[in-house]
Amino acid sequence: MWYVYILECSDNSFYTGHTNNLSERVERHNSGRGSSHTAARLPVKLAWYEEQKNEISATKREIQIKKWSWVKKLALIQGDIQKLKSSSKRYFC
Which helix (H) or strand (E) holds 15? Predict the structure, then answer.
């Protein structure tokens, strides 16, 4: 099983990643060995995760979420479907 996850950092920023061992990966981030982003913003906590069937689907989902705004990621974490949808709308002039 693979996972896509979002960590909340101490400065309220989010870090999105994927792994096949969620608890080990979160521990690695909190030890300062996960990424330079999280190492500079310790401690981090697991805010959200989603199971994926394989690494390819996990990678695709991670890339999708990384493109999202902070507000949209927060809506995902909170399970706020309305806010998630409204933050997905594009406005054209």
Answer: strand 14-19
> Each residue of 14-47: pLDDT tens digit?
999 999 999 999 999 999 999 999 999 999 999 9
Residue 86, pLDDT score: 85
pTM, to two decimals: 0.92
Return the structure tokens found at 35. Answer: 């990424």
- Amino acid (1-letter code) at residue 79: G
Residue with tokens 């805010």: 47
Distances (CA, A) of 16 to 4, 87, 92: 7, 18, 29
3-state secondary structure 20-36: CCHHHHHHHHHCCCCCH
For residues 55, 16, 47, 7, the Cα torsion angle rounded to the nearest 10 degrees is 120
- In the block, residue with structure tokens 């994926």: 52
